[in-house]
Amino acid sequence: MQSAYFDPIRGRLVSALQSFLRVKSAELARVNPMGAEAVRRLLEFSVRGKMMRGCLVHLGWELARTKAAGSPGDGAPGDAAVTTVGAAMELFQSGLLVHDDIMDRDAVRRGQPSIFRQYEEEAERDGSADPAHVGQALGICAGDVAYFMAFELLAGGDVPAAVAARVLGLCARELSAVGVAQMQDVAWGASARPVGSQQILAMYTWKTGRYSFSLPLLAGAALAQGPADRHAVQLAAGLEACGEGLGVLFQLRDDELGIFGTEEQTGKPLASDLREGKKTLLVSLLMEESTPAERRRLQDILGNPGCTVEDLDFVRGLAGSAPVRRGMRALVDDLTARAEQAIRDLPTGSEEARAALRSLLDFTTARSQ
Question: Phi then psi for 113, rounded to 5 degrees?
Fold first, then answer.
C-alpha cells in the first residue's frame, strides 16, 4: 500500500476513534465500570489493525468526488465526515473480529490475547466456576457494543440526512450478508462433507470481498454526492467489481498465510484454520490433487483440535506441490487481471487515487501479514 497516501489517513482514523471512544467511555461508565473497560479494550484492539477499511472509505470518496466535468460535487461532505465514516468501518471490523475469534476459538489476535480470552483470564483470576463461558459471553457483548457504537458514529456525522441514510442502509445490508456467509463458513467447518471451489469463492465474496473492500469504497463514493448519472452508476459498478476481486484475493492470501505463515505474521495461532476444519479454497485444491491415502490423512487433520506441528508440515508439503501451486496461481492471476481492468475502467478519479488503488492490489497479493 502507498504509505504516502494511506499513512495520513490512518493517523486521522486513529485520532477520530480516540476522540469518539473517549466520549463513549465516559457515557458508558455511568452505566457501570464495565462500560469504560469494554471501550478501552475495543480502542486498543482497533488501533492495532491496518485500518484498511477506513482508508478505503477515503479512497472511494476521492475516486468519486470528481464529476465528468472535473469539479467536486456541490455540498459534498468534507474530509472530517469521511474520516468519521471510516472510523465507523473500523469499529464494525473490530466487532466482527471479536465475534470471529469466539467462533473460531482463536485465543490470539493481532499478536495479543483475543478480547474474549482477556475476559476469560479475568474470570479465572476472580475464581469463576466457568471462566470460558464468562469470557465468551462478555466477548459477545463487547462485539455488540462495537457494532452499536459504529452505527452511532454513522448517524452522528456531519453528513446530509439523505446521504447518511444511504450509507446506513448500505452498511446494514452488507453486514447482514456477512453474518449469513459466516454462518455458512462455520457450518462447513463442522461438517465432513466436501465443498466445491465455486461455493467457497461465493462465500469469500460475501464474507470478505464485498464487506472489506466493496462496502467502504461504495460508502466513500456515496459521501461524494455525485449525480445519479451514467458516470455515477458506472463508478459504483466498477468499485463493486474491483472490491469483490480485491477481497477474494485478500482471503486467498489469508489462506496461504494460515498454512505457510508464522504466528508473528498472522497474529494468530499456527494451524488455527486447520483445527477449525475451515473449508478454504486451498483445502479444496488439496483434496482434489491428493492421493486417496493423503486425502484420508488430510480429512483426519481437518477439524482436529489436536492438530500437531507434524500435521501442519504434512499439509504444507501437499500445498507446495506443483498442481496445487498452479491451481492457486491461475486463480490469483485471473482475479488480478479482472481487478486491474476494473481499475482502468473507472470513469472518474485522480491519478493519485487510482495509483493508490493499484498499490492496494499489489499489497493484497503479496502481503506477509
Answer: -55, 135
**The three three-digit cell numbers of residue 276, written as one number:** 477449525
- Kindly report the number of other CB atoms within 10 A of residue 317's CB atom: 10
Closest among 265, 241, 270 to 335, alpha carbons compared: 241
Helix axis angle, 3-29 to 79-104, nearest 10°: 70
Q: Which residues contact 162 (CB under 8 A, 6 or more apart)?
A: none
HSE on the CB side for 326, CA within 13 Å? 5
Separation between Cα atoms, residue 352 and residue 347, nearest integer Å: 14
Is residue 129 helix, strand or coil? coil
Q: Cα–Cα distance between 338 and 344 in angstroms, integer?
A: 10
What are the tens digits of pLDDT across the range 2-51?
A: 678 899 999 999 999 999 999 999 999 999 999 999 999 999 999 999 99
Contact 36, 26 (CB under 8 A): yes
